[in-house]
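Exam revision sheet. Question 4 asks you to relate a sequence to its structure. Input first:
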Amino acid sequence: MPQNQSKIEKLIAELCPNGVEFKELGELGEFYGGLSGKSKDDFSSGNAIFVSYMNIFSNIAVNTDINTLVKVGSEEKQNKIEYGDVLFTGSSETPNECGMSSVLTKKIDEPLYLNSFCFGFRLNDKNLLLPEFSKYLFRDEQMRKQIAKTASGVTRFNVSKKRFAKIKIPLPPLAIQEEIVKILNSFTELEAELEAELEARKKQYEHYRSGLFVFDENVKQEALGNIILSLKTGLNPRKNFVLNTPDAKNYYVTVREINGLNVTFFEKTDRVNSEALRLINNRSNLEVGDVLFSGTGTIGRTALVKEKPENWNIKEGVYVIKPNQKVVDSKFLLFFLNSIIAKKQIENKIVGSPVMSIPMAELKKIKIPVPSLAEQERIVSILDKFDALVNDISIGLPAELSARRSQYEYYRGKLLTFNEYAK
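Answer key, structure tokens:
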């Protein structure tokens, strides 16, 4: 354990030897809602700042460098966020991602409002919890398990405020909170340094990768449609299948599972039963060497099918590109689609609002350089090594960052576990 741990142990022995008090959120404060009565036009010419859903979801402490604006009249009665308030997302596609928290840890002068898809919690006695402590407490695994139990739904899960109010939290003395914050801050600062260094290396890799795809006039530039055997997508699952069935053993690949050039299945992955999967087994006909491309929503994520997919298929919006292996190597195509050169072409062909997509007919028009297969293999060999340096969690900086995150989560769990005081 960190050296500070001995100091925390001494403080616990001195200040709360018999444990700390636990109380339900409903006893400690009040919940409030986000913006109400707003139309789309109110967000196009705003005069006030508000905290967005993604600001909360992505940050344990609210990012106060805010550029999201909403129109709020001087006579309107809207809830304002105050220093120390804990903000939560109200819904998500999975219960495990509902109620993600973020705390306002900085005092700001101008009024700050909350997204309508979120809600806030304010302590009656703000001296009970340090905001810096709250930001760690509500993101700890033990707390996340309690929060997940407050959500219900089928295709979209929503938090129950009534159940949320029953969540119990520890109330350690402020001196102990301060020491815990010091330790966890040191972990997050080190993690931020490693992330910055890794990001710099990724930019260097991106620059080098793009250079490898610059060829002279002797190398042909072919439209994607001319060098592939087919380009298909899956069916809309909400129209054709029952998802998340308890006995399902088959998986759907969505944009979430296209992760770092690979397909990675998570606990939250949608599942379908065998009968439903058979309905689309010939829809995309997945094979080893196929390249997956997210064509709707988050556009441009790619993955390579490396082994025969016996029990999974793709959702509508994920495209399966079947390269002509006599002309273009699958991995060469995969790496090219992730280059700046390709991304600029793709951006120019995106359509739609608010859900954006690139039509398959337009994706087929993307120009791909096609050097000899031997040259393609040479480039792939180089990029494989670079990709490992910035993405492989078993080596180098990614490994160190992964180890630091695991260490941080371990100590956070230890530091935020208290014996409950028995009255």
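Marking note for examiners. The first strand starts at residue 21 and ends at 24.
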